[in-house]
Amino acid sequence: MLDWLPENVSIFGEGVDHLFTLIYYITVAIFILVNVIYVAFIIRYRRKRKGERAYHYHGNNLLEFSWTALPFVLFLFLAFYSDGIWEDIKYSDRTPNPDLVVEVMGQTYMWHFRYPGSDGIFGRRDAKFMGTTNPFGIDPDDPNGKDDYTTINSMTIPVNKTVLVHLSSMDVIHSFFLPNMRVKQDAVPGQWVDVWFNSMKTGKYEIACAELCGSGHYLMRAVLDVKSQSAFDGWIDEQYGSQLAALSAPAAASAPNADASQNDQSAPAVSPTH
Ligand SMILES: [Cu+2]
Question: N or C: which terminus of the chain carries fewer CB neighbours within 10 A?
Fold first, then answer.
């Protein structure tokens, strides 16, 4: 295995790593082979005498056939070899039943995360409500959306649970990259794509954008906090509790979390009035 890869904590990461390692070593072998032949030919067929004319060579059908057929066979093998892993990860009918569904929205240069709230139901969303204060376009008139809870650049999930992400983007194409989960999926404006993972270990991991999306692309990072189920339950009760408290407070009063630090939990799901 390649020990410079980020630590794998994903339940399907081993299959991805095997494939990566296999392709890596095939590539290294071909690189060495090509360069040894290249240098050998430079030496073998160099100009040995002054005034020596180059030999004009018309090609060789057998050689041309071989260097077309061999890569074809190699790619065919890799396609069939990787197909099982691809299907397990990407096919919707193979996706395990999710224990948690989170919506993720990319925006230059940050990540928004949305939880369904204590009712477990995401409120309706519509592109016409989308804006910087309402990145998901949550419909302010839908009661199911009132308790929806959003965070910025911080995603919290329970360990050993299937997490299904509905992914999209507000502006340009981003890529939702979780190196330790072996997940990388483009976030495309106007489209919702599902991607799932399951972490085998608690801890804090990196979420990055893997699509060059602008001058601040390198800033587009978030933290994935994988908690034990009990710690996650405590966390989510706390978030939903403060969300509900904010809702029951008179509309004129400011929300209790209004002065929270801007990189976490500062975006109440309540939409601005229109
Ligand atoms: Cu980006």
Answer: C
